Amino acid sequence: MGLNKQVFLALGINLIRRNQLQLTQLRIIQPWLLNKTLFQLLGYHRRQMKAKQELYSFIQNVVAIKRQDHEEKELQKAKGMDENNNKIDTKDDKNKDLKINSENGNEEEFLDIEYKNTKTKSFLELLLEIDHAADDKLTDAEILPELTTLFFAALDTTATANSTILLLLAMYPEVLQKVTDEIDSVFGGPDEDDGRPPTPADLHSMNYLECVIKETARLYPPAPIVFRQVDEEVPLGRHVLPAGASIMLTIAGIHRNKNYWVNPIQFIPERFHPDESVSSSHIRQRHPYAFIPFSAGPRNCIGQKYAMLQMKTVISTILRQYHLSPSPRFQTIADIDKRIRMDITLRMEDGAVIFQSRKQ
Ligand code: HEM
């Protein structure tokens, strides 16, 4: 995707977030708005339809651009040329199997992934490719809901996570120093870093950065709430959840529960240190569901391994090139808490302010 298309995408996401998410959120926290008549009378239905229309026409535009790109590429391929009008060299084009297994991997085994093809394709490109080969073509109406889910699930979450990680790093210079030292040990530091892109093995070795990412996701889970429908009656303490009830689970609340975390409101990446002698003094009780930024169970996040790689890539790339300095507006966790809003995804009311300067 070229730069213009990326800017277009970013603007679109902003539009989606502003309209769609805020209306959905409103109906969650003001359940009387679930009443259709009231929702219509108060003008929300009209706003929602307009937002949906904006969202769909935005995504339709993206699909149209990609369809056109794809068709041009297929045409070139049929002529034996690549997109830059060079003859395709089949020897170079063969799939390169690069299998990485984490030997001393962490609990999620983030890098237990097979990189089948170094020429990676986006989800939409894959859909269009499959579609191109199929007799029964997918319509835009079939592609749109798939893309909408991915837009919400993948882009907003990682964007929020990356900005919150940078904000916390800017606020905690001693943590930033440790992350910088780790990154320098991988890429050789300012004098030797030749700007090469990170390899999967580089990303795998960024253990302390991973602790920072997890601790940020504990304090500020990008998807702070999830919803479930209760299949059968569930006793819960002194209460009973009736079958059929809709429930909202606050991941953000679980992550700050003092039964599980020591000083839960403090930013302590060492909680996630693989060495228990380091982590245990910051954890009161280990429970499999005390840390669930990607949810848990059969409907958990399908993109969590990719998300971790993406966050490590983005943060390490920025830190290789920029110094971060704290903003006077964000000195403490309480300062962030005051400005954070729980939409379907977490969002900073007026953005995360971080001062940067380019490294020489
Ligand atoms: C920091 C980044 C991310 C966080 C915190 C996150 C979090 C979550 C959570 C909490 C859920 C579960 C929702 C539920 O239980 O109802 C979820 C679902 C999902 N996520 Fe992620 N996610 C992230 C990144 C991604 C990425 C990068 C992708 C795609 C590449 C992705 C794709 C999905 C999809 C498709 C679902 C729906 C799965 C289903 O309904 O079965 N997510 N995510």
Automatic annotation (TrEMBL):
Glycosyltransferase recorded as keyword: no
Membrane topology field: Peripheral membrane protein
GO MF assignments: heme binding; iron ion binding; monooxygenase activity; oxidoreductase activity, acting on paired donors, with incorporation or reduction of molecular oxygen
Cofactor: heme
InterPro entries linked: Cyt_P450, Cyt_P450_CS, Cyt_P450_E_grp-I, Cyt_P450_sf, Cytochrome_P450_Monoox
Primary location class: endoplasmic reticulum
Keyword Metal-binding: yes
Subcellular location: Endoplasmic reticulum membrane; Microsome membrane
GO cellular component: endoplasmic reticulum membrane
A family per Pfam: p450
Region of interest (Disordered), ranges: 75-100
Residues reported to bind heme: C301
Assigned keywords, A-Z: Endoplasmic reticulum, Heme, Iron, Membrane, Metal-binding, Microsome, Monooxygenase, Oxidoreductase
Stated family: Belongs to the cytochrome P450 family.
Protein name from the UniProt record: Cytochrome P450 4C1-like
Protein species of origin: Diaphorina citri
Phylogenetic lineage: Eukaryota, Metazoa, Ecdysozoa, Arthropoda, Hexapoda
Gene for this chain: LOC103516895
